[in-house]
Write a structure and sequence with these properties.
6-stranded mixed β-sheet; 4-stranded mixed β-sheet; alpha+beta; globular; 15 helices
Length: 460
């Protein structure tokens, strides 16, 4: 067991993986502009975490065994790159699934634990491949015109299985080592071939990843957020990939198919809520700064909008704290966040996120999308005029205000901002899924008992 350095991580990606972007196969990730920032971020994470010694391991492999450790893990998570975050969340989701299926399948639980140890001992990064192509959403997997619309087992061998299908929206797949494949939904009897969970190396024969990226290709000064924080989005093709038995965690047991999706949803929603709490505070800060720069911080409707944003950020954080405070222990002694508070907090944070963005845009004004570029601000002839006329209240010159507008645009109104709007709703499953889980775990009998008591109909 040994931790990798940043250089060793970069070298580990030269493993024969099939990566495609912009209409061509990418032979060297390190020299392609779509992957440069992502590789710097992940390699930098390896460098920061690296410790020598055979027994060293990264904090992202920590299994929380108390509410305090769960809280500590979430605080650390906010400072990690996306690949490291998904590694932690994905492996904890697998352990959650293992705890839930162990009573009926000790073998699968044992394989999951062994896989966790393999990733930890080799300091690997994992992504979760869950969302299928789905085809006609009104038809079940077994009723699709193309049975590959949902990832499925196409062959069963004594030593493993062969899977075929596609997994969509797999952030950072191209720069990770492992794909953790899970069913996208609950499968019913008769859909055994689609009830499959397994772990596949990114460089396994038959794996192809087609990438898009919201990162700017140039003008980094005008994109202060996305030029430093971006990841490729992978369209993962599984073209008859062989998976040995030790990497198979589900192969036809439909009664466990939803367990994996629910386990992953729990951890993704917890992490998403943590990020929403941080983003909520960031939006408040941007709104206050731009109001002060515009000289409108005392205008009543702007004060009210910022107050509403403050309440939003505070309530999201309160929901996060409640999810941790009400965490529950598994028989193995692993602590999992509260299903009820995690899903309720993530739903609220995601559902109201776009309204907070609207408030920020209303407060900031049209210059959010029309401010001159930083190159123009620095131009010898027109730059002084831009600085003169972009100046607002005396909290900074015209360049300060221009850069503030660019930060708001990049964070909330351009390619990265659009990615954020969709991701905040869809990460960990859509809003409807979070409502279902929250309702399932809500103490409805207690609520009914209170209502019966109020109505004078209680037997107690």
């Amino acid at each position: 067991m040994a931790m990798m350095t940043g250089g060793e991580y970069l070298a580990s990606l030269n493993d024969g993986r099939r990566i495609f972007a912009d209409g061509e196969e990418v032979k060297d990730l390190a020299t392609h502009p779509q992957f440069a920032t992502a590789l710097d971020l992940v390699a930098g994470g390896y460098e920061r975490h690296h410790r020598p010694g055979a027994d060293a391991q990264g904090p992202y492999f920590m299994i929380p065994r108390s509410r305090e450790e769960l809280k500590d893990l979430l605080e650390l998570l906010l400072g990690w790159d996306m690949v490291t975050v998904t590694t932690s969340q994905g492996l904890l989701a697998l352990l959650t699934a293992a705890a839930r299926i162990r009573p009926k399948s000790e073998e699968y639980a044992r394989r999951i634990e062994a896989y966790f140890e393999y990733c930890r001992d080799n300091d690997l990064r994992c992504v979760q491949a869950i969302t299928d192509a789905k085809g006609d959403r009104m038809r079940p997997p077994s009723g699709q015109g193309d049975p590959d619309s949902y990832t499925r087992i196409v062959e069963r061998r004594p030593d493993g299985i062969v899977v075929r299908g596609a997994k969509l929206h797999i952030s950072s797949a191209a720069v990770s080592h492992e794909l953790v494949v899970m069913p996208t939904k609950k499968m019913k009897p008769g859909e055994e071939d689609w009830a499959v969970a397994c772990a596949i190396p990114v460089n396994a024969p038959g794996v192809k990843i087609v990438n898009t990226n919201y990162a700017p290709r140039d003008r980094a000064a005008d994109f202060p957020v996305s030029s430093r924080h971006n990841m490729p989005e992978g369209f993962v093709i599984l073209d008859d990939v062989f998976v040995p038995n030790e990497r198979v965690f589900l192969a036809g047991e439909t009664e466990h198919s939803a367990t994996f999706a629910h386990s992953l949803g729990l951890w993704e929603r917890l992490g998403g809520t943590a990020h929403l709490a941080e983003y909520g505070d960031t939006l408040v800060g941007l709104a206050q700064l731009v109001a002060e720069a515009n000289g409108t911080e005392r205008v009543s409707h702007i004060r009210e909008k910022i107050a509403e944003m403050v309440i939003y950020a505070t309530l999201v954080r309160a929901g996060l704290e409640a999810a941790i405070a009400n965490a529950e222990a598994s028989p193995e002694g692993w602590y999992f966040p509260s299903e009820l508070f995690t899903n309720a907090a993530k739903h609220y944070g995601a559902a109201e996120f776009s309204l907070m963005i609207r408030h920020l845009h209303d407060i900031g004004g049209g210059s959010i999308v029309t401010a001159p570029s930083i190159a123009d601000v620095e131009h010898d002839e027109v730059g002084p005029f831009i600085k003169k006329y972009m100046a607002g209240k005396e909290v900074g010159d015209g360049e300060y205000r221009t850069r503030l507008f660019h930060a708001i645009r990049d964070f909330t109104a351009d390619a990265y901002g659009g990615w954020q709007l969709v991701t905040m709703i869809q990460s960990g499953g859509g809003l409807y899924a979070q409502r279902l889980v929250a309702r399932k775990h809500y103490p409805m009998d207690d609520a009914k008992a209170l209502a019966l008591k109020l109505a004078g109909l209680s037997k107690d």
